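An example makes the point: we let one protein speak, the chain in one-letter code, the fold tokenised, and here it is:
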Amino acid sequence: MQLKKFACLLVVAFALLACVEQKSEEHPLLGQKMPYLKIQNMMGAVTRMQPHGFDKPALVNLWATWCKPCIKEMPALEELARQGDYRVIAISNDANKQVVSKFIADGDYQKIQFFYDAFGKQSRSGLNAQGLPMTFLVDRDATVRHVFVGEEDWLSDAEVVKILNKYKVKYDD
């Protein structure tokens, strides 16, 4: 019985710790090249991911299905991906890939590129992420330009929109 209580407390403590915020302006990857991450795509193939050489900047989002702020911002990230100015890459830090697949199917997410990193072993350490959600704005040359810490209002927060507009690709008319 005591072991069960301890295990429950440990899970709650981990969940709370995962939501601890780190200040964006202090993140060590700002101005640096986005590191390579060796993670799984949703089909199970291990891939070496680095968002460079793309035709547009990327938003690399670390999230989990158990993280309420992560879930809340996912539809807005899908809308950003639909608008076409950003490639949106979402890396799940869940323990169970089937839960992630069900979430994606139920949410009808068509434009976000989903990847899976069990428990965030590669992504959280490789990106120095101390909480979820955390989103990295990466330019076309793979340089981290901004780190969004915590839940964001991607479509209507004036400061967020200003930052996004600064880095989106300007197309010739």
